[in-house]
Amino acid sequence: MIETRKLLPFLLLFFTSCSAFDYSPYDGLVKGEIGINNKNSALIERNCSKRDTIRFAVISDTQRWYDDTQDFVRILNKRNDIDFVLHGGDISDFGVTKEFLWQRDILNELKMPYVVLLGNHDCLGGGKEVFTKVFGNPNFSFKAGHTKFICLNTNALEYDYSNPIPDFNFIDSQLDSLASSDDKTIFAMHARPYSDQFNNNVAKIFEKDICRFPNLQFCLSAHDHQIEADNLFGDGVMYYASANIAKRSYLVFTLYKKGYKYEVVEF
Amino acid sequence: MKWLNFRISTLLLLTCPSFVSLKADDSLYQERVVKYHSFWNKLVPRHYKLQFAGSMGLLSFGPGWEYGKHHQWETDLYLGFLPKYSTSENKLTLTLKQNYIPWTNKPLGKHFAIDPLTVSLYVNSILGDEFWTKEPSKYPGGYYGFSTRIRFNLSVGQRFVYFIPNERRKYSKSVTFFYELGTSDLYVASAFNNRYLKLHDIIHLSLGLKMQVF
Fold first, then answer.
1. What is the CATH number of domain A2-266?
2. Domain coordinates of chain A in residue numbers?
3. pTM score
4. Residue B83 phi/psi, 5° resolution?
5. Interface predicted TM-score of the whole assembly (ipTM), two decimals
6. Do residues B174 and A8 touch, judged by C-beta distance below 8 A?
7. Where are chain B's structural domains?
8. CATH class given for the domain over B46-212
9. What is the strand order of the sheet A114-116 is part of?
């Protein structure tokens, strides 16, 4: 009985510090806020409506770097000039359900609205369904001022042919025939053309397709864990990639009536 | 074919002892049959467990065996059920669990006893289309570097045993309630090198019942 008395306090401490039951890391049991991208897209549209100058920050690949993500949130919250944050995907590393929730809870501390794209790691082990529940459809769009942000799922390696990635029908549905000369377009994706995730058989077709959009400004990507700025197809369309958050940097874009400014901010 | 022949001959041996008893080395045969029986007898599950949570499904059920001088070792086999929740399908899980109980059945009154500490290591496999043991060949070598299907878990716990009085025994001689606190490899990997995730984020409680048949 001596052992019992010795062990009991230790176990009781554990018992009380333990928050809940866990059915499986892949249980898909979502607690807390859901449908984030939809709600925040509406906020962005409302906040930026009719404005010519928009400033937004881009981060990505925050998987498992909880402390760095939290630091980013604290630092960005000190700024008053950012309209919204775009997360380029890979919010989880293993596709584990709780990863999505932990990261969501950190990003929910941002005082400005944010949206999250689907990354390839987010697709693992039923993660795509958890992502869809918590954040929303992997293909989505919103408008900030005069600029339409078309966010695409480009993680073709995580799907088979029954799911078209990138989804050209979705892209087509985003083309507004009544666009005015003020209207601009930005495409955002996790994996850019010619990366290991992209369906490179259609890389050129994809580029041709998105060039139909009114005043295509540039494209945003993530995945490579490094800052990139490339004229990928030699046609003048820039592809900007943010680094993983552990590199402790984020991108800031300022969209003006004519043109834009691109900055890399280290923290 | 050899295996099948062996199976058929064993079956014959077992079903028609009179047929074999005509043979000369009858005693050797009897000895073998006894050995054969005792071998399979050892594999008869001694207990069954029902476990709630524990990163191996919502509910898991399965047989188990104990061995060692003081029955301090235990092996359990579980079939678990995991509802689909936000994912696309309900899933089954398989778990192989190894328990070590350093002090077994410390008396606690006439009909009760306590196992003050249990330590368990278990491997869980989640059965579903979206999970793989080895990365599918479409990925470049070592692309993700882990298996989404196979999980390693570690837990510690305690047990409270109730010995059913002889006259009231029906199918089991004792019933044990146990609880465990445990974690899974991917949770440990997540918390590693992070201050944000605390112990209570990655340690979870599970509850269970053990029915000791004999």
1. 3.60.21.10
2. 2-266
3. 0.90
4. -60, 160
5. 0.90
6. no
7. 2-40, 46-212
8. mainly beta
9. A114-116, A84-87, A54-59, A249-255, A260-266
